[in-house]
Specification:
Number of domains: 2
Shape: globular
CATH topology of the largest domain: Jelly Rolls
Number of helices: 0
Strand content: over 45%
Strand order of the largest sheet: 1-3-6-15-8-9-10-11
Helix content: under 10%
CATH architecture of the largest domain: Sandwich
Structural class: mainly beta
Order of helices and strands: EEEEEEEEEEEEEEEEEEEEEEEEE
Length: 296
Amino acid sequence: GSDIDLDDFLVLPLTTWSELHGNVAATTDYARTGTHGLREIGGSAYPQVFGTLAGSDVCINVWYREEMATDTNFMALLRLWDSDTSVHSHHCIGTGVWTGTSTTDYSTHTEGFAYTAAALPRTSGWRHLSIAAVGSSCELLVDGTSLAVLDVLDPALINRFSVEGYRGGTGYFDDAYVRRLALPEPTTAVGPELVSGAVLPSVDSMARLEQNVPNPLNPETLIVFTLPRSQPVMLQVVDLRGRVVRTLVKGQRAEGRNQVTWNGRDDHGTRAASGVYFYRLTTPDQVLSRKLVLVK
């Protein structure tokens, strides 16, 4: 493929995109930051643009302008690839929008392009798509909410990531970046910006969800969250397929620090199986999640 300069679409690290396919171009139509974003128009050759990687222990990211498109064959995906073609000629996983699976919820896919609709409704505005790869374990997220954890890529062979559309509709993206997991999340290049005509909330006006302690847990763990004001919230433990295991909080909670204990049991009082789970805090403005491990 050819090397393409897409201006400030990729903000960290600075590099060029390669293997450009379809109708893809830098555009000033919708720039989340800087002067340019990325436009992908679906057609007979569906749009793809690739950035290179070297191995795992990274988090790849892109911001997608969600306009709630329901066109047939509309896609807006962030994908992570490795070079293993022994079973599948295109070996990748992805997170984002695919109307062939759901027009109302976000979707993920594993190898072989096997798609699953996630239990996370699509919401208009700029959405943050990311995939965190730790060894062979890859967590697929939208706006920080974990949709799936997959273990199908070879960490030694991970070599690129892509931002892709398909045959229906037009997608807009901006601020793609790669973060090594050992480094903190960047704040200057991809911090609070204008989103749909309004400034993103400041940290002080947002809810915060802390890592549970202890983790791994046996037999119980403490979960702490902080609210900027009194508001209705829901705190749930979900499994890797997004199924609710336990609803810990549902209702109005006070401003400030709140805490709740999970005893490792489901809503029926049955001890949950050992393994990886996520606890998800939902407020009127945010959906936050973190990972926990249950051992027996």
